[in-house]
Amino acid sequence: MRIVAAQHDPPVWTLPAAQVRRIAQALPDDTVIDARSPEERLAAFAEADVIISARMSADEVAAAKNLKWVQSTAVGVEWLKALMESGRDVLITNVRGVHSDTIAEHAIALVLALRRRLHVAAARQATRTWSQTELQEVRNPPLFESRPRPGYFDLVIRNEFTRPPHCLPQPSPSLASAEAKARKPR
Predict the structure, then answer these.
(1) Which among 23, 47, 55, 111 counts the fewest CB atoms within 10 Å?
(2) Is 5 helix (H, G, I), strand (E, B) or coil?
(3) For the whole prediction, is pTM greater than 0.70?
């Protein structure tokens, strides 16, 4: 089998040459080609059975006569539109889930950055403005003391400030008593 690793899109993402060598070592009975330039891609695609890439142009699709499988290095496959529209019987797979942990950690980091107002701190730092008082004015309880607030996400999503008070979600009596108990000093 002839496998072409053609993921070289600086500055977005490039499959490192060391990883291409690793694929070749794992598949000693197959030919693995590292195609980095547009010319190398077009030439290598002509004999490829498998292509590892996130995109293919119409010219590259036309050149890839033996193609059986494209492993997209991206979650989305919209960059393979020319291949999908060609009507050819080619298996297209993606890397769904490969970045799930990283994305989840990034989302948590962004929430914490907003909670601690790091965007304000960075802006003040850039102008060399002392902002300790400003940043301490908004008191956030520690996360372990935080309680979900009924309707909080509705506030964010639907902007409930514009809704009449009788339409706002009301805390349930059991939740209100649990919050009152949690606030009592021990």
Answers:
(1) 111
(2) strand
(3) no
CA distances (Å), origin 110, targets 104, 115, 117, 163: 10, 8, 10, 28
CB 176 within 8 A of CB 147: no
Q: Are 60 and 41 in contact (CB under 8 A)?
A: yes
Distances (CA, A) of 99 to 22, 73, 103, 105: 20, 11, 6, 10
Name, in order, each residue with C-beta under 8 angstroms of 55's C-beta and a sequence gap of 6 or more. Answer: 9, 79, 80
- All domains of the chain, ordered by start, with CATH? 2-93 (3.40.50.720), 99-140 (no CATH), 148-176 (no CATH)
**Spatial distance between the Cα atoms of 56 and 41, rounded to a whole number of angstroms:** 9
CA angle (134 as vertex; 115, 182 as ends), nearest 5 = 50
